[in-house]
């Protein structure tokens, strides 16, 4: 039955023809959930949000979020209602973080039991479904507690406490994953194959580490001059290393996992680890981290054209890698010479991405010129195609100091988060 609904809602015309007022039935919820899943696979998160929001409305209208009296429904009915509700919850909470929107299912309204790793599951898929629901709960909490408008206005001590709570939640999720794997992994591999389960395990770890990076990124600064704290950088490195391991698993399998992986792991939540490592390379010229950036970009190439969103993300990350590589190269040359590069094209490029050259120092003070962060577009173009000739560099010289000097990596991150180029 579920497969039939999935086929019905996979076409654009079918989704477009869904009526505004759907029957308040479980069948409507099933259709909406499958439509939302398909929209995510097509890199259409806003459409997925519209469909999941309607499914959420129907679930709550039918009382699926409430505990059901034991004698009111059959065991099969109770199981179906809970499955539909928690599937809708999974999509809602995940997209809440992805799109920066308030959840439509507040946790304090839910009285139906939350799935647990200690439940007496009969099938591996339901055991792992528990982990996906818990991951989604963490995603919703990350937005609500750290990145929502209300959260950003909280005092430092409140944010610090929230960061620690969310770190603990993600650590508990890791422990639950270990427990589930110990009980079900081999059984699931016997049914579905080693490569599929290894892929899911690795991709889930990558997503969890990406969320951990996002949590640490919101931690208040405690006197460090670095853009990101050490925990955030370590989590970002672990994420890219886990991603590399997942890519190796996909490469050794005959199944086409790449499109699913990029839609449900890299694009499903804000993938900040790459940005964290990029900014860290700009600050420190760490060659190992630069290699991580290069490996990540190369790993995206096989799936770069599977969707418009993936193509855009690959193009942006490629441009950022080119910038990081060029800046590291120029910084090394500058350090060896004990001065600026001596090449006006190189100096222009350094200044365009916020690296102070000798020509910017006046009277012992560094010149900081603020401007629109949109000028960074020109810097990325230079990274991909080489510096312009000297006359063009002169024409754009003043407009490309938006990121002047250290400390503006955070502004760069904000630009990347808000820029329409991002999917």
Task: Point out poorly predicted stretches.
Answer: 353-413, 415-423
The number of E-state strands comes to: 2
Q: How are strands sequenced across the largest beta sheet?
A: 1-2
How would you classify the helix and strand content by structural class?
mainly alpha
Instruction: Report mean pLDDT, rounded to a whole number.
Output: 79
The ordered H/E elements are: HHHHHHHHHHHHHHHEEHHH
Q: What distance lies between the first and last C-alpha atoms, to the nearest angstrom? A: 33 Å
The share of residues in helices is: 55-70%
Please give the largest β-sheet. Answer: 2 strands, antiparallel
Shape, principal axes of CA atoms: globular
GO biological process, one term: DNA-templated transcription
Transmembrane segments: 261-282
Pfam family, one: Fungal_trans
Organism: Colletotrichum simmondsii
């Amino acid at each position: 039955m579920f497969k039939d609904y999935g086929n019905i809602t996979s076409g654009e015309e079918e989704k477009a023809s869904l009526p505004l007022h759907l029957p308040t039935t479980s069948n409507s919820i099933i259709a909406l959930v499958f439509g939302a899943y398909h929209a995510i696979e097509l890199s259409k998160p806003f459409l997925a949000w519209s469909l999941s929001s309607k499914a959420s409305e129907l679930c709550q209208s039918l009382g699926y979020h409430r505990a059901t009296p034991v004698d009111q429904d059959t065991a099969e009915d109770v199981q179906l209602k809970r499955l539909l509700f928690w599937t809708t919850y999974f999509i809602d909470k995940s997209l809440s973080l992805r799109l920066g929107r308030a959840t439509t299912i507040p946790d304090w309204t839910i009285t139906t039991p939350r799935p647990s790793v200690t439940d007496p599951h009969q099938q591996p898929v339901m055991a792992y479904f528990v982990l996906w629901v818990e991951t989604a709960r963490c995603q919703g909490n990350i937005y609500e507690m750290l990145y929502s408008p209300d959260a950003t206005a909280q005092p430092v001590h409140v944010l610090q406490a929230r960061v620690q709570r969310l770190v603990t939640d993600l650590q508990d999720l890791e422990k639950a994953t270990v427990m589930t794997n110990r009980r079900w992994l081999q059984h699931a591999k016997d049914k579905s194959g080693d490569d599929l389960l290894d892929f899911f395990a690795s991709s889930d770890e990558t997503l969890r580490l990406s969320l951990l990076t996002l949590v640490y990124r919101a931690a208040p600064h405690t006197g460090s001059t670095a853009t990101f704290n050490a925990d955030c950088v370590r989590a970002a490195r672990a994420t890219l290393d886990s991603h590399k391991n997942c890519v190796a698993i996909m490469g050794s399998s005959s199944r086409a996992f790449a499109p699913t992986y990029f839609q449900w792991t890299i694009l499903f939540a804000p993938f900040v680890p790459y940005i964290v490592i990029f900014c860290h390379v700009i600050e420190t010229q760490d060659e190992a981290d630069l290699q991580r950036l290069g490996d990540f970009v190369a790993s995206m190439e096989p799936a770069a054209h599977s969707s418009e969103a993936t193509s855009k993300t690959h193009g942006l990350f490629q441009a950022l890698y080119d910038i990081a590589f060029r800046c590291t190269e120029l910084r090394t040359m500058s350090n060896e010479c004990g001065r600026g590069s001596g090449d006006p094209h190189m100096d222009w490029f350094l200044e365009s991405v916020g690296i102070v050259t000798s020509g910017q120092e006046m009277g012992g003070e560094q010149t900081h010129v603020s401007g629109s962060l949109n000028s960074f577009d020109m810097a990325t173009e230079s990274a991909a195609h080489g510096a312009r000739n000297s006359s063009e560099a002169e024409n754009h010289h003043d407009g490309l100091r938006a990121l002047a000097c250290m400390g503006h990596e955070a502004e760069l991150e904000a630009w990347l988060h808000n820029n329409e180029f991002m999917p």
